[in-house]
Design goal:
The chain is of the alpha/beta class. Helix content is 31%, strand content 25%. It has helices spanning 2-22, 41-57, 78-81, 89-101, 184-192, 208-224, 273-282, 285-288; strands at residues 27-34, 62-64, 104-106, 110-114, 117-125, 131-136, 142-145, 149-152, 164-168, 171-175, 197-201, 227-231, 248-250, 256-259, 265-272. Strand 5 (117-125) and strand 6 (131-136) form a beta hairpin. GO terms for molecular function: omega-amidase activity.
Length: 303
């Protein structure tokens, strides 16, 4: 009986320590959930919710799901799997998961149907289950690499026309989806808007993944002196589109804090934004930009 009470007390103490890390004023713990995506939408969503619950038990304040986590990444299927946001089943499940686990969820992306157009859309939910941000993929993935990969999202998807951020406590976070990460101007606008972190749910492929996945993630981190997280589906070799995997979090110095393999797995990473402030003070590029010679501007919002 005494041993049982002692074990219980140790468990409570450990959970309190984890909670303290996750709610620190200088940072929080983030989960990147690298899920296996199947053709069964309900199974995909149920698996995502289960992994969010596990992230909560591991002391995470924020969970990030992959691009197209509820559907195969296939232009021929996007419309079939599409849902209204926020009224669809996937959004209802994410809202309930955020509320019941009292955490933030970046809902990767799902195919969204709106006015008969389909978008690749990321949703963000707060600990009360409220939808606090929505980002439609701005840059559609239309590429043709002979002997490598040919894919044309514009055959099935419409492009988003806005940049989107959300607040997690005192931290501001900018959103992109996969191909958006290649456009440095977009990330630079987020930096000018005061973002501390950039998140890109993504699904790079077996051609561009080995070459550019880590490189682009580290570039966006160093360029903007911000944390950058990229969350991929796990690799399924017999799928129509084979994802690279390797979800990762990079710090403002360009250091990879944690990186997944190609397998189905989760990462739990403690982020200390004091490190970001130190880097910005030691290498003050924001104050050294020659705006008399060049600038990056948000034409839509006149930033």
């Amino acid at each position: 009986m005494f041993v049982g009470r002692k074990l219980l007390q140790q468990t409570i103490t450990l959970f309190a320590q984890v909670r303290m890390v996750s709610s620190s004023s200088s940072g929080f713990r983030v989960a990147l959930l690298q899920l296996t995506v199947t053709a069964d939408k309900s199974t995909n969503v149920a698996n995502a919710i289960k992994r969010v619950q596990q992230a909560k038990l591991n002391g995470c304040t924020l969970a990030i799901l992959p691009e197209c986590f509820n559907s195969p990444y296939n232009t021929a299927l996007f419309r079939e799997y599409s849902e209204v946001i926020p009224g669809g089943d996937t959004c209802k499940a994410l809202s309930q998961a955020a509320k019941s686990n009292e955490m933030y969820i970046v809902g990767g992306s799902i195919p969204e149907i709106c006015d008969d157009k389909v978008y690749n859309t990321c949703t963000v939910w707060d600990p009360n289950g409220n939808l606090i941000a929505k980002h439609r993929k701005v840059h559609l993935f239309d590429i043709n690499i002979p002997g490598g990969v040919c894919f044309k999202e514009s055959d099935a998807l419409a492009a988003g026309n806005a940049l989107n951020t959300f607040q997690l406590g005192k931290f501001k976070i900018g959103l992109g989806i996969c191909y958006d990460i290649r456009f440095a101007e977009m990330a630079a606008i987020y930096r000018k808007q005061g973002c501390d972190m950039l998140i890109y749910p993504s699904a790079f492929n077996m051609t561009t993944g080995p070459l550019h996945w880590s490189l682009l993630t580290r570039c966006r981190a160093v360029d903007n002196q911000a944390f950058v997280a990229v969350a991929s589906p796990a690799r399924v070799t017999d799928s129509n589109y084979v994802a690279w995997g390797h979800s990762m979090v990079v710090d403002p110095w360009g250091k990879i804090l944690e990186e997944a393999s190609e397998k189905d797995m989760d990462l739990y990473v403690d982020l200390d934004f004091g490190d970001r402030e130190n880097m910005r003070q030691q290498i003050p590029t924001e104050n050294q930009r020659r705006t008399d010679l060049y600038d990056t501007i948000d034409l839509k919002n006149k930033v």
